[in-house]
C-alpha cells in the first residue's frame, strides 16, 4: 500500500481545496439530493472566495491527503463555539473529512482522522466532535469505529432542504 502523506494547507491551496471540496461533497451526496439544492449549496459554500476566507481564518486548520503527488482527500478542523451538550468543554470540530470517491477504502479517511486527533491533542483539546447526516450510515459506522458517540442533533441546510445531522463526539482525555 502506498504511503498517504498529510500536509497542512495554506492559502496557496485555496483552488485545490475548493475543487476537492466540490468534488467530494458532490460525489458523496448528489444521488440523495435535488440538483437545485446541491448547486445552491456548492456554489455558496465552495466558491473561491468562501474557501479562501475559511483557510485564512486562524480558527480553521485544513489537512490535505496525498497519494504520490495526487491530492486525494482533505479535512477541516474548526475551533469555535461548541454545540449544546459541549458547553464549557475544550473541543474542536472536524467539520469536513472527505476522500475522493475512487480512493475510498484505501486508508485516506483513517489517516486524516488520526492526523486530526494529533492536531487536536497538540491544541490541548479534550473532545473532537462532528456533525454527520443521519442518512449517511457509511460515515456513521466509520466514526463509530473511531469511538465517536452520538450526543445530539442539529439542522443542516443543504440548499433549501433542512436535513438532520447527528452530532457525535470522541473524548481525547480520560475524564471530562
What does it look like?
The chain is α+β, with helices and mostly antiparallel strands and 176 residues long. 34% of the residues lie in helices and 34% in strands. The chain has a single domain (4-171), classed as Gcn5-related N-acetyltransferase (GNAT) (Aminopeptidase), CATH 3.40.630. The chain has a 7-stranded mixed β-sheet, with helices on both faces. Strand 4 (91-99), helix 4 (108-122) and strand 5 (127-133) form a beta-alpha-beta unit. Helix 1 (14-29) crosses helix 3. It is globular and about 35 Å long. The model has no long low-confidence stretch (mean pLDDT 93).
List keywords for this structure.
alpha+beta; Aminopeptidase; 7-stranded mixed sheet; 5 helices; globular
Layout of strands and helices, then pairs:
Elements: E1 4-8, H1 14-29, H2 35-45, H3 48-56, E2 60-67, E3 70-78, E4 91-99, H4 108-122, E5 127-133, H5 137-145, E6 149-158, E7 161-171
Parallel strand pairs: 4-5
Antiparallel strand pairs: 1-2, 2-3, 3-4, 5-7, 6-7
Helix pairs in contact: 1-3
Amino acid at each position: 500500500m502506498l504511503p498517504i502523506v498529510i500536509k497542512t494547507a495554506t492559502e496557496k491551496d485555496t483552488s485545490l481545496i475548493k475543487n476537492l471540496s466540490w468534488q467530494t461533497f458532490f460525489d458523496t451526496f448528489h444521488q440523495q439530493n435535488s440538483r437545485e439544492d446541491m448547486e445552491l449549496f456548492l456554489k455558496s459554500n465552495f466558491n473561491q472566495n468562501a474557501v479562501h476566507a475559511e483557510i485564512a481564518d486562524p480558527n480553521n486548520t485544513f489537512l490535505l491527503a496525498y497519494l504520490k503527488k495526487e491530492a486525494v482527500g482533505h479535512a477541516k478542523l474548526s475551533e469555535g463555539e461548541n454545540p449544546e451538550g459541549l458547553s464549557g468543554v475544550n473541543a474542536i470540530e472536524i467539520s469536513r473529512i472527505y476522500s475522493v470517491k475512487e480512493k475510498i477504502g484505501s486508508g485516506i479517511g483513517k489517516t486524516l482522522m488520526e492526523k486530526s486527533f494529533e492536531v487536536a491533542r497538540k491544541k490541548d483539546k479534550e473532545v473532537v466532535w462532528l456533525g454527520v447526516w443521519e442518512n449517511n450510515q457509511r460515515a456513521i459506522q466509520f466514526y463509530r469505529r473511531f469511538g465517536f458517540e452520538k450526543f445530539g442533533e442539529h439542522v443542516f441546510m443543504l440548499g433549501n432542504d433542512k436535513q438532520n445531522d447527528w452530532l457525535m463526539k470522541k473524548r481525547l482525555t480520560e475524564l471530562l
